[in-house]
Each structure stands twice: as C-alpha cells, then as structure tokens.
Amino acid sequence: MSTTAVDLAHDHDHSHDDHAHDHPTGWRRWLFATNHKDIGTLYLWFSFTMLLSGGVLALMIRTELFQPGLQFFRPEFFNQLTTMHGIIMVFGAIMPAFVGFANWMIPLQIGASDMAFARMNNFSFWLMPPAAILLLTSFLAPGGATAAGWTLYAPLSTQMGPGMDMAIFAIHIMGASSIMGSINIITTILNMRAPGMTLMKMPMFCWTWLITAYLLIAVMPVLAGAITMTLTDRHFGTSFFNAAGGGDPVMYQHIFWFFGHPEVYIMILPAFGIISQIIPTFARKQLFGYASMVYATASIAILSFIVWAHHMFTTGMPVTAQLFFMYATLLIAVPTGVKVFNWIATMWRGSMTFETPMLFAIGFIFVFTMGGFTGLILAVTPIDIQMQDTYYVVAHFHYVLVAGSLFGLFGGYYYWSPKWTGFMYNEARGKFHFWASLITFNITFFPMHFLGLAGMPRRIADYPAQFTDFNMIVSIGAFGFGLSQVFFLFFVVIPSIKGGKKAPMKPWDGAEGLEWTVPSPAPFHTFEVPPTVK
User: Fold this and answer.
1) Which CATH number is 268-518's, of 1.20.1090.10, 1.10.240.10, 1.20.210.10, 3.40.50.1820?
2) Is 14 tagged catalytic?
3) pTM of the predicted protein model
4) Which of 118, 191, 336, 337 is surrounded by the most beta carbons within 10 Å?
5) Is 16 labeled as catalytic in the residue annotation?
6) DSSP at 92
7) 266-298, pLDDT tens digit by residue?
8) Number of C-beta neighbours around residue 63 at 10 A
9) Active site includes 512?
10) Which residues cross the membrane (predicted)?
C-alpha cells in the first residue's frame, strides 16, 4: 500500500517537473514558444516593428513630395519606396498584427487551453522574420528593391533586378505562414470551444477570424500562383504575361486581384470583430443584431470573390463586364452598412463611457465609413475611369486600411492590454494618442481627395506646382501621424508593460466573455479544465 502511495507521489512530482519544463525561461521561452500567448506577443512585436519600418519609408516618400522638383531621391528609388511601403504594411504589419490578436484572444474567448497545433503555431511565426529580412535587405540588391508597385504588375515585375526575386520569395514565405496560421485558427475554433459554447454564442471576434481564415486559405495560393508565374517568366523562359510570346499582361491583373480583393477584407474583418467587442462593453448593452452581424460578415467574404475587376476598369474590358463588377461592388456596401447600423444601434441609448478603446471604436466607425463612401464612388465605372491611379484612390484605401485596420488594432490593444500585461495603461496618454492619431490622420489623407480630383497621379516623385500646397499639408500631417505612433510605443506600450496600476480581472465593467474570467495578467496556462458556458 505504501509503495503505491510513493509511486503516486512520485508521479505527482514528475507531472510537476513537466510543468516546470512547460514554462521555459529566457530566450528559449521565445525561440521555442508553443504557448498561444507568447506567440501572440511575438506577432504583435514583429508587426509593430514592421509598422515602424514601413512608416519610415512612407515618411521618405512624403519628404520627397513636400515640394515639387526632385529633392532627395531619384524617381527609380522613389518607386522602390512606394512599392516596399505597400508590401511591408500589408504583409508585414497589418496581417501579422491581427494574427497576434487571434493567437492571444481566440483560446481565451472560446475557453480553449491553447491553439490546436502549438508547434505549427511556432513555425508559422518564425517564418515571418526571415521573410521580413529578405524584404528589407532587397534594397541592397543590385538595382535595388522591386519598384513594380505593391501589386507587382507585369511587365514591370518581369524586368526588375534581383530585388524582385527577393520580394517574391519573401511573399511566398509569408503566404505559407498565413495558410498555417489559418488552418490553426479554423481547427481551434471548430474543435476546441468550451462545452456549451455553440457557434452562435461565440464572441464576434472569433467569428470574424473564422471567416477571415477561410478567406486566407482560399486566396493565398492564388497569389502564390501569380508570383510563381512571374518568377518563371523572369528566369525560365515562360510567357504567361509576355504578349510577344502569346501571354497576356492583363491576365496577371486578373489573377492578382482575385487574391487582392478578398485580401482587403482579410485586413478589415478582424477589425470589425474587435470593434464588435468594444462597443457593447462601453455602451453596456448586448451587441445589436448578433446573428445579422455574423451573416453580414459571411456575405462580405462571399461577395469579395466576385468584385476583383473593379480594380481594372481601365484595362478595356467589355461594358457588360464593367456593369457586372460595378453592381457587385455596390452590393458589398449592403452587409457593410448592416454592420455600421448595428454598431450605432448598440450605442443608441446605451450608458456610454469614453475610455480610449471606445474612442478608437467610434473614430473607426466615423473614418472607416468615409473610406467606404469613397469606395462606393470609385465603384461607379465612369467615375473610376477618371480617378484611376490618382491620389483619390490613395486617399480611399488609406481611409479603409489606416483608419480601418490600424484604428481597430489600436482599439483592441487598449481594450485587451490590461489582460495581457496585468497593468492598466495611462488613460490620459491613451486619449492623447487617439486624438493625435485621428487629427493627424485626417490632415494627412483628407487633402489627397482634392489632389486626386484635380488629377494628381499616384506613385510619382515630382508634380506640377499647382499641387504644392496640399502636398505640404499632407507631408506635415504624415510626420505628425508617425510621431503619434512613436509616442504610443514609448509612452503607452512600454510603461504599461513595466508597471503601473494593477489591472483587475475585469477592468471594464460592461465587459462580457470568458477572457474576463481569468486573472490579469493571464497566467501561462489557462483553461486546463474547460469552463462550461451557460
């Protein structure tokens, strides 16, 4: 009898040892990370680093455009800057940031102990830094980085130097990372929800990510196909996009945008999810029309596959195709409008307070809706033909991506960071960051509408003198916006990691969900015994 007791005690000790090994320390904790929270943290730091890198390129662009004439950079290098700014922001900053949020929050929100495939999760993160290094060092390649625009259109992309090959390789690696991350997210959400949590009881953030993950799996291979065909055109004598060899450069655009249009929803749907978590909390009401929000998200995802050629109205497609893509694009405004009305209905007669997450959520709705309206304007074929490749388009997609994706990410950071760090951020600094970002964002991007309407083309290093005043305003705003994010890093993020007011288990009194049932900071292991959802 006593030996059994000793054996049991020994077993108990052994399991305790396993637990100690389970929580590695120092560099091993990060290099071999399999815990969803650590991997989420790695993604968030990586994406913020890339945000700052892409931001520096943007400020170089704006420095050159402060006045007409060529001041600092020759046009070839200017084109490299615009191209790399776009690629780094899309694949290096926005997408990995949302994956960081998914890693941190999805297991906490559905009551899972971790992500489904912990080691694959580690691998999908560690693919990102080598891809980023490839991208950033492509500036040092002979002939510099690719300058074909972030869309990498043929025939420009088939004529670039080795920097183009480095970009293709980097995008392949990032695409593989995205596909693995998506498989992980889908498996986790479908198989690891706590008992009692049906799909229609899931938090909206989990829903938007589930749909986003399906989109990623559907379209990342399409992008891989497009850039692989570019690679074989460049080095293996094929003629996919070379008209002289029987190919078609416009075919590249069709393939690219079949990826590229769902991609813009990949970058905004998780932000919709974050906003749908924040607004009910600070309005102290249930989300209005939960089921319709789920169906609207799914509708947006499905419709995103049939609108790709609205990026191509000037390529000479038949008028029937122009009409089809115009109406399909206008149709996407319906489910998007449903979401905006539901958010407003959630706030209606709620007992609202305006902490920083709520400010970012309301700022998001206001500015994202403006970006949506300019999108509707560009969807109208005859208008788009006039606006094609002008600064109006630049204004439109920055309103959607910066004020959409980025404001959503900032709102999510302020909302969940007490759960991550265990400390409350400084509310006054958070509000300063919000107002500085909102004001400088609009100073930067609103005048671009006027520049575009007046006919200033995008991706040019020099411009006629009549565009000078607006360009000066835009450049000043851009530096203000960049400095606001540096302020965010040094005066909000780092201090709230180091210490401050201790965060309670539930820092927001209107918050609901399983993530608020674990201590702050969330312990290394959560939900080892799954909670039951009533």
Assistant:
1) 1.20.210.10
2) no
3) 0.94
4) 336
5) no
6) I
7) 999 999 999 999 999 999 999 999 999 999 999
8) 16
9) no
10) 42-61, 81-104, 125-147, 167-192, 204-231, 251-275, 287-309, 321-345, 357-379, 391-416, 432-452, 472-497
